Amino acid sequence: MTALCRPRRTLNDSPVVVIDGVLPTVHVRRRLPLAVAGLLIAVQLPAVAVIGPTAEQLDEANERVGQLEDQATGARRDLDRVEDDRRTFDARLQAANEALTGADEQASAAALASASADAEAERTRRELDAASAALVANRQALADVVRDAYMHGGSSTSPLLAVLEQLSTATDPSGLSDVLHLLDTVVVERGAVVDDTRRLIRQTDQLTRAAADAAARQADEAATAQVALDRAAALHAETLALVADAEDAAQQQRGLLEELDADRTAAERQVESLEDQARRAADTADAAVTIVALGSGLSRVGGITVATSLAPALEDLLESARADGYVLGGYGYRSPETTARMRRANGCPDVYNSPASSCRVPTARPGESMHEQGLAIDFSYQDRTICYPRSPSRCSGNGAFDWLRANAGRYGLHVLDTEAWHWSTNGQ
Fold it and tell me: So where are the chain's domains?
């Protein structure tokens, strides 16, 4: 395979040949004797830098953590809602318990009052029957007295008339008068008894009707109380079922949240592992920055994947930063698919159409990001994104940012006016 050679200059202006092959090839920029440099023309050296995880792998791992965090947040909201429902149903159940107890007491009291009213009505009916029987008997007795008095019937008809008959044989007129007076008194008294019995019947009849009315009212109240009791019992049973369902839902939601927390912990550990691999790769790399051609117009420079056209300038920038004490890392190229995934994770309303400003974390639309052209880099220093999430105007005093602001323009990179960490060939 034909190797393309291009001359480069070292810091002492000694020419060094760097080989760009189609297959991944390490390009070493060092102050080498000309004899050693000449060997590079004939020998294609294999890559010696330790390659860590790709930016997409880290993106996907971080995206997974973000998705799980969003799911866990949603699960917590659902759990809070279910717990609120459960507390609401608990309160309803307490009210249903109180209503059921009150209805039961009212129904019991109404049933007792109804039974008492029925007993009173029965007693007054018996008194009415007795008074009616007494009226009949007194009427009959009065009729007998009157009949015997006027017919002077035999002594077998009435003991009183038997006495009167004996007295009537007396020759003394005054005695007979006394007997007749006594007879008149007896008749009057019998009539008074009949009248009293009639009054008693009327009074007893009124009491009987009142007792019957009271018994009917108590029966209605008892029936109403029983209906209320039945409704309260049905509401209690329904609320009890709701409480049980809410508790089951809360338990399931708590289990889901535990699973999401466990998955998120595992995803975070994966991110930590990938970042550790990246750190180890950076730690084991040569002091000099290396360029690895990846094909498809992309190259990796110091662990940052960018467009091959940007690779030489980035190489010079990273080496210059190292010379000044800043070992920079970062994230460069990403595919449109990765951009779409990031927009989903960053809460963009419409993954492909909504503007970057509408996202929870501003993210360019697929096809519009300079990252997709490999012409943008999110710089990091000491494993932290530089000044995230501040704008350049709020990042003064950060050593790595101040270095980039003073030097990056010489290498064709310009900062985005809203993101201190984002540098691109056109500042977008």
Answer: 4-67+273-424, 70-265
Question: pTM here?
Answer: 0.39
Strands ordered across the beta sheet of 290-295: 26-28, 290-295, 298-301, 304-307
Tell me the CATH number for domain 4-67+273-424.
Answer: 3.30.1380.10
Phi-psi region of 412 (alpha: psi -120 to 50; beta: other; left: phi over 0): left
CA distances from 399 to 23, 88, 369, 405, 409 (A): 37, 56, 27, 10, 16
Q: Quote the DSSP letter at residue 7.
A: E
The CATH fold of domain 70-265: Helix Hairpins (1.10.287)
Residue at token pair 């092959």: 21
> Per-residue confidence at 386, pLDDT binned at 50, 70, 90?
very high
Write out the two tokens for 3. 């190797």
- Nearest-angstrom CA–CA distance, 168 and 158: 15
Contact 24, 290 (CB under 8 A): no
Percent of the chain with pLDDT over 70: 71
Mean pLDDT of 82-104: 81
Closest CA to 101 of 219, 228, 189: 228
